[in-house]
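Complex record, two chains
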Amino acid sequence: MSMRLDHRPGEVIDRQREFTFTWNGEEYPAYGGDTIISALAACGERIFSRSFKYHRPRGLLTASFLDPGCMVQVDDEPNVRGAHRRVEPGMVVSPQGVWPSLEYDVKSANGAFGRFLSAGFYYKTFIKPRRLWPVYRRMLRRFSAGGTVSASPAQDYFDKRYAHPDVLVAGGGPAGMAAAVAAARAGAQVLLVEEEYELGGYLRWGDEAELAALRALREEVASSPGIEVMPNSVVEGRYDDNWVAVMQRDLSHVEERLVKARAKTLVVAPGLIERPYVFEGNDTPGVILSTAARRLINLYAVKPGERAVVFSANESGDAAAEDLARSGVEVARVVDARRGGDIVRVKGGGKGVRAVECSDGAEIECDLLVTAVGWTAPTSLINMAGDRPVYNERAARFFSSHLPDDVLTCGGIAGDGTLEELIEHARATGGEAARRAAKTARRLRGGIPLESEAPPAEISELPLYEHPALFRGKTHGIVDYSEDVTSKDLVTAEKEGYDSIELVKRYTTVTMGPAQGKLESVNAVAIMAETTGRTIEETGTTVWRPPYSPVTLGALAGRIFEPVRYSPMQPWHEIRGAKPLVAGAWIRPDHYGDPASEVLNVRENVGIIDVTPLGKFDLRGPDVPKLLNHLYVNRWDNLEEGRVRYGVMCLEDGVVFDDGVTGRLGPEWYVMTTTSSGAAGVGEWIDNWLQTAHPGWRIHVTPVTTAYASINVAGPKSRELLLRLTEGVDLSPDAFPYMRVREGRVAGVEGCFMWRLGFTGELSYEVHVPAAYGLHVWETLMQRGADLGVGPFGVEAQRILRLEKGHFIVGQDTDGLTGPYDVGLGRMVKLDKDDFTGKPELAWQSEINGRLQLVGLQPHDGSLVPPEASQIVEGESEIVGRITSSRMSPTLGRSICLGFVAEHLTTPGTKVVVQLPGGERVPASVTPHHAHYDPEGTRQRG
Amino acid sequence: MVERAPVARSPIAPAPPTTIEYGWEISARSSDAELKITDCTPLAKVLVLAPMYGELARALGVPFGRAARDTHGTLVVGSGPGEWLLLAAPGTNQAVGKRVEVVQDEGLVSVFDATHGRALIRITGPRTPDLLAKVCAIDFADEVTPDGAAFRSSVAKLVTDVVRDDSGGARSYLLHCERSSGQYLFDALIDAGDEFGIEVDGFVDPGDRGV
């Protein structure tokens, strides 16, 4: 049965674009511009969902974004506002949470037990026994009316944007448009946000005069430079200093975008929301609001029914009656509330309205009841701005009481009036908003407001029209359509002692559904007032908090920004199939296929590893030794030029913070290296000391981590390889011994420096080259060292090599309690230095006993590698240590470990018991040194 | 001893076709799109640290938060309190550094060649503020950040120095960050600019007209 009307003057559908979509498994026709629900209603469909608790059939109510009965599943997207979302060709739309079908939902049996499902039912019923909670949870989930979330990991594209408008106008109805235009004409940059797809508010479904006014206002907006219009977008929240969150939807390439706007002035112009009436049967399909009827008829050319009763208390109801009559609907009766008329109940069932019973006893057969009982002012944003709205009995709605200077209101939320009066008021408001924004802009730029700045604009007060206070009729009905909360539930809650609206909200869940109180809040307050005998003013409202409407998690997350860092040699690593290792923000090669072979190649030939992520700081100035002495526990004022020294940094509490080597390249020029993960922390640490404790020290510190590509060339043939590429440096052992630094030219690249170190335990050189030439030098090393067996090695091989050599890693072999005395570095701590970081604590540590000590450990079963963090135990369950590092050594052919043990277990040869994660206990012995391989250091000093 | 001449490479993979110019591997692509992005990493970058109000500061003539060209066409950026970044034509690092070093200043002065430590990107076109609004919280309105404004902020969650440096009447910004995140920043800007039709444009030595 087609309910589609012929052409309407204000219709938004495109009759030239006809297509089909699927609803509930069947194909339906639609026009471009139709919403999902308008297209279905045009085909005679009246039921679109089942209610949350009782699974009652639900149809149209508001025909807008807020419509609680029109939540549907679209493809794999749940909870879509079907009365707002435009239908698209091929769209697959389904009802949510029904079984076996929308028409015959077995869960509607809940309705039969409705009297037992009263307020607090869940709290009372499902609290005991506790052991059944999982069962309850599963059962309740089955009864939930929500849709189905896709399990696919594919995500839609969301992003964020910042905006800095002078004036942000929330609401694109006639008042919002007029305010925006006035603000723009006063020189302001304006962001105009509208929830609907088009600007215009109620003018869009109005008569000829209203449509003419709409066209004129739209033309003004379009021709005013400085206005950015965001349709299909919602102002979700207002925070301190007019930080305004806007959810933008009308984008072709982005699913949703969160706009973070810092508005100098906010103009709240959301219009008014039509309020439903509470009576028996008010959620029966076919009971709709007057604005819904007018939207359907005038925007979508859909006839809402065949025979209607209109219950009207205002002009909107009268206009709806006229629209219905003009569109061929038989208006059986207009019940005028202004003359004492009322309706008692709707009779009908699953298929919709059958008859309406009026207060005069008349029962009128019809399939449509249109109600127009009053308006709710959406005060959310002004509430978020600190305002506590107050109830006005004459107008039967809430108004603001006290707004901050940077928030203004216009339109229905500010008062009543003719269209001309409302527009004039809005223009004055927009101009004043621009004036205040300009004043704020001057203040933000440090300017002093001029004496001659424009005086505040005169904004005349809008009149308030008298309106009947209609909330609930003579019978009980649904208050919250989303949560299935009835007026009887509210009365019950009050009888149980929940006599505050905030308590009732939480107890009954009224106003907590997807409509977030915009349809039901005032009715709930009024019913509570009626029940408690207080006035509405005394009862008050709940507090409106962001978001104004439900927001997708994707939109909140936005586009995920995760900065990553690559070394200059990354392209080479990728081509060679290196397994990437995520180390903080760095992407590093973990290995190139076989870390054990990489280890052996370093031991036997020569390997190169990309160590660019090592933190590096260029230190210059006469006071650098003071800084080094302050940061490190060892002494630095005697470091000679050309030398490199290892140092350990501790925090004030004596805990090892970082380690690395620092070389002196010139009289007042040093380069410090840190651990890769510690670079940022050390940088902040240095800045902190220099800026707070020692601002007078003459030092320049520059982070140069990525200014140099760093390559460690390690292995017995490393010198031979570098001899082939290096100019200006004598690489002979006497001229360039262990722990020295030299500058020179490598592979034709000027400005390189290299130092001899031994982290791998082999003869090795750490070469630092200007980063843009890093790939060139790396490729040249590989090319020129082919006959020497050169090969790359990754982080895993490096970790094995250093463990064979017994070097600890900060963060791996230390924790938040480890001091230098605990890892065998006590001899480095120079307590005879002037004050340095951690000195008092370290002085204490030097005198105490009983702390865990880092030792080398050798499992008796050399084929067994105890997992890191395995505990070392004594007796039944006393924990006396732990394994901090463990690997199978390719060089030694057995497992090797570092670990902490209690002081009485540190003697070499002591047998300890390692408890594996599965509970099995295995023996291991403490080794004489941390180093399992070449403890004398012969190879690295070669 | 070494067969191949060293080739410098930007951290940003050059869009094909590529060529070697000024000793750098660069993109030879040319675009006439309204919104363009160019990897300018080959430009010489010299970092100067000196007293904020000393002789050298007076000689450089650019305060913190501003950028301006000197008589040599070098863009002098007041990148921090007592910190300047000088951007000049490729290969002029040493010459630029020497010009600075000759200035006598009583305070401690340090001059670094930061060419290899920074990635430098230029975006040009009328929609650049819209692009940046997607990745940076700063207000890019003329009144707040006019031509010549320089600041350090978070761009796509990365610490980035931004310089408004209009070119030939077109809105243009230079963005530089530490080198290792150059590709990330470039990709983030391309992604943000996709809806505005951003295209990659190859690097061309600005020559006498300055960077």
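Note: Chain B touches chain A through 49 residues (CB under 8 Å).
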